[in-house]
Amino acid sequence: MKHIVIIGGGHAGCEAALAAARIGRENIRVTLFAMSLDSIAMMPCNPCIGGSAKGHLVREIDALGGEMGRAIDATFLQSRMLNASKGPAVYSLRAQADKKRYMQYMKRVLENTPNLFLREGEVLEIIVVDGERSRITGVRVESGAVIACDTVVVCSGTYLHARCLYGETVNSVGPSGQRSARKLSENLRALGFTLQRFKTGTPARVHKRSIDFSKMAKQDGDINLVPFSFETDPAEIHRPQLPCYLTYTTHETHEIIRANLHRSAMYSGLIDATGTRYCPSIEDKIVRFADKERHPVFIEPEGEDTQEMYVQGMSSALPEDVQIQVYRSVPGLENCEIMRPAYAIEYDCIDATMLTPGLEAKHIRGLFFAGQINGSSGYEEAAAQGLLAGANAALTLCGNAPMQLTRAQGYIGVLVDDLVTKGTQEPYRMMTSRAEYRLLLRQDNADLRLTPLGYQSKLISEKRYAQFQQKQGKITQEIIRMKSTVTSPEGANPMLAQKGSAPIMSGIKLADLIKRPELTYWDVAPLAGEAVFDEGLTPYVRQTICEQVNIQLKYEGYIAMQQQEAEQFAKAEARTLPPDLDYESITGLRLEARQKLAKLRPANFGQASRITGVSPADLSVLMIYMKTREGDRERSHA
Amino acid sequence: MSTRNNTIAAIATPSGTGALGVVRLSGVAAVDIVRKIFVPVKGEWKPRSHRMVYGTIVNGSAPIDEVMLCYMRAPRSFTREDVVEIYAHGGALPLHGVLNAALENGARLALPGEFTQRAFLNGRINLTQAEAVMDIINASSDTARTAGLRQLGGGLSNKIQACRNAIMKWLAHISLSIDYPEHEEEAANRETILHEASAVLNDMQALLKTAVIGRILREGIKTAIVGAPNAGKSTLLNAILGEDRAITHELPGTTRDTLTEQIQIGGIPLVLIDTAGLRETDDPVEQIGVTRSFAAARDAQLILYVVDGSEAGQALEYGIHEGQQQITIINKCDLPQEVHQGLIDVGSVPTVSISAKTGQGMDALFTAIQQACLTSGTSIAQVTESDVITRERHRILLEQAIAQINNALNDLRAGVAEDIAAIELRGAYLSLGHILGVEYADDIVDRIFAEFCVGK
Predict the structure, then answer these.
(1) Contact A619 B440 (CB under 8 A)
(2) How far is CA B67 from CA B45, B46, B309, in A?
(3) Which residues in chain A are closer than 8 Å to B418, comparing Cβ atoms?
(4) Which residues of B touch A558 (CB under 8 A)?
């Protein structure tokens, strides 16, 4: 029986283990090693899942049969659809998580998955034997035991050589006081990986009773819930939602920070790692946006059974005596009790350009990487990679082709392609602006895009796939009905008048009426008579079908535009480059391009075009080289 | 062996008589070939890169010309290959002699634009620069050459880049409001984009307008000389060209086909088309000529309508098509005049009296032609001051970008969500990027193969 070892029990590790076990079934054993089994699926930073672009990732994970969507649906404290005033491409789900319950949920799922085994312990070494291509024989754990295995997925998060910094104080520990992993970095270096040092941070947690909420703006969750998972029925969620609160930093806050900047680990020279621009510390914000008078601060619950509140927007590496002054200068936090101080954390990660688009190391067969070890930040980014890496670990062991997602298929495709093609110089956060085909990659159609792929890879059950097909068929059917039904002026004009829309003079297709900005499917559809729904479809599924019809018809023109672009893109992706191409010998290439191409060995022209330092002129040269090569081949065969 | 390894040679300076002319060789064998045909003034030739050497070009034992030459070692040359440039005396005889010597000793005559093609293939220049070089090679006028040179230097690129930067800024604002929805203060301002866009659109429209001029610079203004038989059309052509290009004869119907000639008048390139006289004829050969004349006149942008001033009772009207300009020329003013300017009712059409035979009135005609070439308030003379779109591909992309921005603005005005409008804005950004050659396009290779005929 084949054996896959997952190193790390965070969000990447959990999805990797589940995906591998679900694909492997009775043919593969999966063992997940965690530093502590009490920290499985821990959220050491913000107590929320989703948000802009990250929400898309969670839906895609779910569409591919991952667990994160179901886990947050089962444990959220508040749920909101962000960007609801904007276009459907950027609607983003975000939920406040009950951290403890989320962890319990995930651990329970892992424990109850057949052929999946949880083990506590630090992995010190991945044992590799050199051959024609290096391969893995096992891992050595801290007890001294050597566990034989065929494939390893490294999901070590921020634990490698982790250091936590509080002002002048540096502790060699991992997140939330966990042990840091001391040996694996050296092992990875010895295996030929380039390591970089990244930095991130987290704000303080304060006691709820010490906060004056009357000075803050209350933010409630949505009344009409949209769950993350396509399998969750919101009608079955009966949970009161907890509010969040909004307040702002003050002039005083900024003064205190400026006066104590030299004591922040970030500015005193203690940290030389690269931090993220995307969730900067409060010190960074004050320095970089000096002219901004205030920054928003959100107070979010960490769980139903705890009084700890998370202070979003106030991450810091200042010493605790300054932190308390800073926090207390914010309206509503004047008397706050800090329960856990803010800290910055430094850790090792690899240069992800050494990986294939399937997240496998190019030079060591069977060694996969997922999550923050690849330079990303965020639970959702980690989980997405974990799912892909875990699935591919199992698929390749079973002799199947690895699963790969392109930039036109999903945010996961964008995320992975960015990491393995461009690498990253700072913790990489998913953002909608990174996706070229945003209107195609909506959160509402993640299942339509990816569930067939998940089914192919055995990540989606027969039952779920049948339900999916039923929904898909109904959407198509209803779109055809809207496109083929013509309404008369007598039929439509009363409704149009009521909606303040221009009356029609002759018959018009319903689909064309839906395109009017002031009208929706729900206004227009009654003109065609009641839609017929299959028995057994829940009201929520019916609603999602209608939404799908509305969006697909309303934005048809724009969607077609992006589809055309995506087809162009696909052409370049289809032009493959041989993995053994001797770039050094292509004289027309600039030196930099030659080196980058030789190092990265892109799979196709599309990937080559996205390598930093390879210009369109280089690509033309490469393309002409390939054409001449093909031409020479044809001639020599003739 | 691929064609790229061949050594090519060509005369690199324009034809015509100048004090000096250059023969250029490029390729791995350039030095070996030159070694066979070059005798330095003293000793043996030891090629050192970027050094001038004085000596004689010989073909066999026959001396051809006294020259200076310069060797540029790969990759520090225009083609990134070994290049030798030979500076000989101007004029056809010495230059062809030098070229022949090179060809007879192993070089191949370069195809049009082949040096540029090599420069491009070897990564020396990018596509936009290559296109600009092609423009310079194909330029039909000095003004076009200036525009080509400017494009090569990046004048046009800078303008396009500025528009692109503006679009990127809007896209960034829109993205910011999407990716950080909780930071309402950062929200993109629809009004700001609508406001700023008009200035950017104006710049782009102005650039697009130059495409008309660019086309003229590239192709020349098609100018048809039309008129009744024996009105003196061919004599006029010769008078404008200053040489006996067309056969003139007093017999009507001498010109039975159309002749085309290129000429510059005040920096404006004209393609002069001499036509057969427009008359009814039974001669089938002449009839073909007349038919072609009508066709040429229909395509022309400028009509020079020639009337014989010495003969009364001619048709004085010529029906021009929309978009055409006309100058009426009353020829043969050296003879007693039967037709007078004031008698011809031609509305606003400029009319000049000349004698193509004696040259009288030709300056006035040239001025009238220059005047007529003013297009929509933009004088071609201004072209040297500003940057011009000379490529058809660029014009199409620019038009596309303008349309995309307009679509986006219409969306924004209609209340469509900003992230949806951003799709069109992104399209405009990409279109402009394709002009600059900084965006990767999968069809680029086909375009290159079409333009450069690689491998043929």
Answers:
(1) yes
(2) 13, 16, 55
(3) 86-87
(4) 420, 423
Residues in A closer than 8 angstroms to B127, CB to CB, are: 616-617, 620
- The answer to whether residue A63 is domain-embedded is no
Put simply, whether B320 touches A (Cβ < 8 Å) is: no
Predicted confidence (pLDDT) per residue in A229-250, tens digit = 999 999 999 989 999 999 999 9
Domain at B152-215+391-452: CATH architecture: Up-down Bundle (1.20)
Same domain, A496 and A604: no
Which residues of chain B are within 8 Å of residue A90 when distances are taken between CB atoms?
178, 417, 419
Give how far Cα A137 sits from Cα of A130, A148, A154, Å: 10, 6, 15
Give the amino acid at B253: G
Instruction: Out of A531, A562, A593, pick the residue that ends a domain.
Output: A562
Supply the CATH number for residue A590's domain.
1.10.150.570
Q: In sequence order, what E strands does A293-445 have?
A: 296-301, 308-312, 338-340, 343-350, 364-365, 367-369
- Give the containing element (helix H, strand E) for A10: none
- What's the pTM value of the predicted model, to 2 decimals? 0.78
Q: What is the pLDDT of residues A41-58, one digit of tens each?
A: 999 999 999 998 999 999
SS3 label, residue B275: coil
Are residues B127 and A438, on separate chains, in Cβ contact within 8 Å?
no
- Domain B3-125 class, CATH top level: alpha beta
Neighboring chain A residues of B80 at a CB cutoff of 8 Å: 587-588
Q: Does A68 map to a domain?
A: no
Query: Tens of pLDDT along A452-482?
Result: 999 999 999 999 999 999 999 999 999 999 9
Same domain, A521 and A619: no
| Average pLDDT estimate for B397-410 | 93
Whole-angstrom Cα distance, residue B83 to residue B73? 6
- To the question of domain B220-372 being in CATH 3.40.50.300, the answer is yes
Interchain CB distance below 8 Å, A620 and B175: no
- Pair (A221, A339) in one structural domain: yes
CATH number of the domain bearing residue A336: 2.40.30.260
CB-based contact (8 Å) between B323 and chain A? no
Question: What gap in Å lies between CA B305 and CA A594, rounded to an integer?
Answer: 61
pLDDT in tens, B212-222: 776 666 667 78
* Structural domain containing residue A258: 205-345
Residues of chain A in contact with residue B454, where contact means CB-CB under 8 angstroms, are 624, 627-628
Chain A neighbors of B168, CB-CB under 8 A:
none
Going B204 to A572 to A377 to A614, the CA torsion angle's sign is negative
Q: What is the Cα A597 distance to its own chain's centre? A: 27
Domain ranges of chain B: 3-125, 152-215+391-452, 220-372
In a domain, A96, yes or no: no
Query: Between A and B, how many residue pairs show a Cβ–Cβ distance under 8 A?
Result: 115
Instruction: List the single best residue of B6, B171, B174, B178 to mutate versus A (max A Cβ within 10 A).
Output: B178
Note the pLDDT of residue B141: 53
Chain A residue with minimum CA distance to B128? A617
Give the minimum alpha-carbon distance from B408 to chain A in angstroms, rounded to a whole number. 11
- When pLDDT is averaged across residues A626-638 and rounded to a whole number, the result is 62
Q: Do B182 and A82 touch (CB under 8 A)?
A: yes
Is there a contact between B225 and B273 (Cβ–Cβ < 8 Å)? yes
Min Cα distance A174 → chain B (Å) is 28
In chain A, the residue whose alpha carbon lies closest to the alpha carbon of B129 is A617
**What's the pLDDT band for B91 if we cut at 50, 70, 90?**
confident
Please indicate, yes or no, whether residues A327 and A210 belong to a single structural domain of this protein: yes
pLDDT of B6-57, one tens digit each?
Answer: 899 988 876 555 678 899 999 999 999 999 999 999 888 999 999 999 999 9
Residue B266: pLDDT over 70:
no
Task: Answer with the residue of higher pLDDT: A177 or A515.
Answer: A515
Cα–Cα distance between B24 and B108 in angstroms, integer?
11
Domain count, chain A: 3
| Residue A151 located in a structural domain | no
Q: Are A353 and A421 in contact (CB under 8 A)?
A: yes
A479 in the same domain as A557: yes
Which of A562, A595, A612 is the C-terminal boundary of a domain? A562
pLDDT of residue B295: 76
Tell me which residue of A544, A539, A481 sits closest to A514, measured CA to CA: A481
